[in-house]
Amino acid sequence: MEQQGAGVIVHPRFCSPNATDMATVKKLSTRNFDITDVNGTLLFKAEWFGLLKTKRTLSDGFGSPVLTFRQKTMTLHGRTQVFRGGSMEQRDLLYTVKKSPLFQSKTLIDVYLSHNTEEERCDFRVKEFDRGCAVYVGESDVIVAQIRNENTFKSVVFGRKDKSSVTVNPNVDYAFIASLIVILDDIYSMNN
Q: Where do the domains of the chain lie?
């Protein structure tokens, strides 16, 4: 089966010929968090900016903005637009993420690449399973990444609210997958 849309989405430097394992850690006191590789090397920082904390960015380990997120208010599906770098210009729009309707209980979000302006069929979707979720190509059963929640009583007691492990399949843009984690975090933070 052809994996349309799988591969480079953000930038080729974020695609590896091998599977990429990442971990996310978020402290109790903030909605900012880090994404590291399995050796603890910082890959990304997800941070809120602006006077009212209305702008979210995903920066690389050196602090350079990779993606910027803009939540569209007053929409039926809770849309988030994701832009290249620190831009919020329409020409730099990479994809739009929509929260799935409540009646689609296992599907959390649908992703529409910028060229998919009709949004009749999603390019990617995230579905939940026991203690995690998986990222699928469109409406297929092709999984490109898995996210597992690793919260334990001990991690909560010692100040770590959320800890997840992520496995991204070979040749899949792991910055794209990291951006979906940021959006899922926003959705869950608003609902808790």
A: 12-191
Q: What is the DSSP letter of 12?
A: G
Predicted pLDDT at 3:
40
> Residue 99 — pLDDT band, cuts 50, 70, 90?
confident
Residue range 12-191, CATH number: 2.40.160.200
Q: Which residues contact 191 (CB under 8 A, 6 or more apart)?
A: none
* Chain centre to alpha carbon of residue 14: 14
* Element at 186 (helix H, strand E): helix 174-191
| CB under 8 A, 24+ apart: contacts of 43-48 | 43/174, 43/178, 44/175, 44/178, 46/178, 46/181, 46/182, 46/185
CB 111 within 8 A of CB 99: no
| pLDDT tens string 38-88 | 888 999 999 887 655 567 899 999 999 999 998 876 555 678 999 999 999
